[in-house]
Amino acid sequence: MSAATAVLAGRRLAESEMVKAGTKGIVRRATGAKTLDPVTLIETDVMAVIAAETICKVRMPTATNPGEGRVPGVVVVKDESILSLPVDAPGSGDVTTGDVWECTANPLDPSMVGVKLRISGVHHQTTATARRFPVVE
Known about the structure:
Blueprint: H1 3-21, E1 24-36, E2 43-55, E3 57-59, E4 67-71, E5 74-78, E6 80-85, E7 100-105, E8 116-119, E9 131-136
Antiparallel strand pairs: 1-2, 1-7, 3-6, 4-5, 6-9, 7-8, 8-9
């Protein structure tokens, strides 16, 4: 089996796990423009779609406790998860630090719908079976 064939088989396997869970999401990026909510009068960022709604997977990288840091008078918890997107999903190669992923569907855990996670790092790998991005809530 060639390396290319093995990578493509790995991608199909990674995507099959995403399909089974049924989780979907969309990635957006702030455009720099602002809009005013007429009800709350709160100014918010105008967001552009970077990666259209696609299957995905979110997981904690380990079963250990999240990291903890101390700032005088405050406990800061570092709780980083991994967002996996299909390599060939439209726009997934354009996702970068600061973009925001939003869960649009999760049949196995409907409470995740609407959850937003900020991309906290990039993903570069020559033989990736999925694009895996570190994310924080």
